[in-house]
Amino acid sequence: MNSIILLTSFGILNLFIGFSKSKKIIMPLVLLFLAIVFVVNLIGWNDTQTYFERMLTIDNFAIAFTGVVVLTTILVLPFAQRYVDQQDESLAEYFSLLLFSLVGAIMMVAYENLLMLFVGIEILSISMYVLAGSDKKNLKSNEAGLKYFLMGSFATGILLFGIVLIYGATGTFYISEISSAATAQSNNELTSPLLGMGLLFTLIGISFKVSVAPFHFWTPDVYEGTPTFFMAFMSTVVKAAGFAGFYKLMSVSFAGAQDIWFPTLIAMTVVTLAIGNIGAVAQNSFKRMMAYSSISHAGYLMIALLSFNDRSENAILFYSLAYSVSTVAALGILKIVADQRDDVSYNAFNGLGRTNPLLAAVMAISMCSLGGIPLTGGFFGKLFIFSAALEQDLLWLIILAILMAAVGFYYYFRVIIAMYMREPSGERVQVSALASFALIFMTVLTFVLGIAPGLLSNIL
Amino acid sequence: MTGSLFYFLTFLTLFAALGVVFSKNPVYSVLFLILTFFSLSGHYILLNAQFVAAVNIIVYAGAIMVLFLFVIMFLNLNMDTEQAQKKSVLTKVAGAISGGLLLVIMIAVLKDAEVGSYDPENFDSQIGLVENLGHLLFTKYLLPFELASVLFLVAMVGAVMLGKKETQQRHF
């Protein structure tokens, strides 16, 4: 709750700071704001609080995921250096929208009432629609903004219809009270078919937001058109918060009705894994590849959601953190390189190992982490997810996921090959000190998660 | 009386909604949409939700529809431009199949749904009035109500940011 209040007031404050002539002060200030929120958020650890007629519950689950999204935002920000250098007029607005969208993300991980989930998803989505189209002179960015807006509002409509049907069947918006109706439904004691319909529509709505196939079709186009800086935010924060909210909904409300949704979700997981990984192979643009890669990681997170035991909460947390850190590092480097070489394909990285050893090393490590090589965070993320699934006897799904991870090596390693085995395609790339620091921090974090996963694997 | 009024309003709503989809002229579509909103407001009144009915007319049939009409006239969409872009048969067939599947599922679900009844003894006829709604909004639903302001702020900041004229000082 404190973090919501702080983020909202900092966002408004930041809009006013945007009136000042010099834009240089904004980025350090926003970093400071986020650091304050991060600390204030952690203060409430082990102290579960419920606010405003049980609308929000700030428990360890909410605090941990709030920590992940705020930390991710802190790590994304240094890559906005180019906007600062160009004295971009809308700089303060960009950052304020990021701060406001974090309010939505926190609502999505801490909600206790479906209304809060809906308002949270909307705050996050509307900021993303705007930021996707924020590069006004670029036709692709306009297309991305419009496409995301139209399809997203349609998905919102479906989600809202689902929530209304659930309300019609159970008479409540509280997720804990829905659960008893869902259990009764599953035992065929009380048959209100509206609940199943509502559940299906809600699933469709949320799946769209976290880009799970078959509702992923917007992802490559939108991510490709979105400015890289905002894509780094979109593909990490939205996904982490979305999956936390998704998991909370399924585990609290619909745990008893597992036989209704389990076949649907398992089919969606298989399709997501296949489309994400095989689609990524065919891409020549690094940015599009990262979009497909985000779909495939949604598939792995779905496995944790499906396995549905006491391990899956921790697995989702660990995986989101490891995935967010590596994705931010990879897209941050893409942003730096693409700004100077004007290219988002694999060729932009040609010979980066010779011109910029630091960038190339960080990129290689984050690619290894996304692929799931041991000693990096991504490996243990996948390991935890698979061990959670193993307890649920989903061995065939794990084998499929491992096969798909092997496909993943192909496209992740294409970048490494381009960086170390091709002739340089351009001059040395300039990196700001803050961005280098963030990149080194992310590398260290990836290794810490990969060497001492016990630090985070059992905290929930 | 109420029952037949309900069926009349339902018929009107469905007819107008179909009219929105099937009219060739976009301005007719918008006019049908206004009719849809009015008949939906009739449903709200039947449900004893007078305030929602009034808001529905003021906000949707009033403000949003004017915006719609304005945009349509602005874009100058007439019958010629609409017919110029032909959709492929395959798209139509695919749309009909997926829409039909959804329809089948909805019918299968709704035919078994129990329609709740109300208790005439304890029924509070004041339930849909502004006073009760406001009371609920400022007590039980205070937090989502307040946080919706963040949503509107985001929409406002975004609209201004996207709509603002760029000064050319960016490429100095």
UniProtKB/TrEMBL annotation, chain A:
Signal peptide: none annotated. It is a multi-pass membrane protein. One of its GO terms (cellular component) is plasma membrane. Its main location: membrane. It is found in: Cell membrane; Endomembrane system; Membrane. One of its GO terms (biological process) is ATP synthesis coupled electron transport. It catalyses: a quinone + NADH + 5 H(+)(in) = a quinol + NAD(+) + 4 H(+)(out). It comes from the Bacteria. Keywords: Cell membrane, Membrane, NAD, Quinone, Translocase, Transmembrane, Transmembrane helix, Transport. Pfam families: Proton_antipo_M. One of its GO terms (molecular function) is NADH dehydrogenase (quinone) (non-electrogenic) activity. Residues 113-403 form the NADH:quinone oxidoreductase/Mrp antiporter transmembrane domain. The chain crosses the membrane at residues 25-45, 57-79, 91-109, 115-134, 146-175, 195-217, 229-248, 260-282, 289-309, 315-337, 358-388, 394-413, 434-456. Its EC number is 7.1.1.-. HAMAP family: NDH1_NuoN_1. NCBIfam families: NDH_I_N. Belongs to the complex I subunit 2 family. NDH-1 is composed of 14 different subunits. Subunits NuoA, H, J, K, L, M, N constitute the membrane sector of the complex. NDH-1 shuttles electrons from NADH, via FMN and iron-sulfur (Fe-S) centers, to quinones in the respiratory chain. The immediate electron acceptor for the enzyme in this species is believed to be a menaquinone. Couples the redox reaction to proton translocation (for every two electrons transferred, four hydrogen ions are translocated across the cytoplasmic membrane), and thus conserves the redox energy in a proton gradient. This is NADH-quinone oxidoreductase subunit N.
Automatic annotation (TrEMBL), chain B:
Pfam families: Oxidored_q3. It catalyses: a quinone + NADH + 5 H(+)(in) = a quinol + NAD(+) + 4 H(+)(out). Its EC number is 7.1.1.-. GO terms for molecular function: NADH dehydrogenase (ubiquinone) activity; quinone binding. The chain crosses the membrane at residues 6-23, 30-51, 57-77, 89-110, 141-162. InterPro entries: NADH_UbQ/plastoQ_OxRdtase_su6, Nuo/plastoQ_OxRdtase_6_NuoJ. Keywords: Cell membrane, Membrane, NAD, Quinone, Transmembrane, Transmembrane helix. Belongs to the complex I subunit 6 family. NDH-1 shuttles electrons from NADH, via FMN and iron-sulfur (Fe-S) centers, to quinones in the respiratory chain. Couples the redox reaction to proton translocation (for every two electrons transferred, four hydrogen ions are translocated across the cytoplasmic membrane), and thus conserves the redox energy in a proton gradient. This is NADH-quinone oxidoreductase subunit J. The lineage of its organism: Bacteria, Pseudomonadati, Bacteroidota, Cytophagia, Cytophagales.
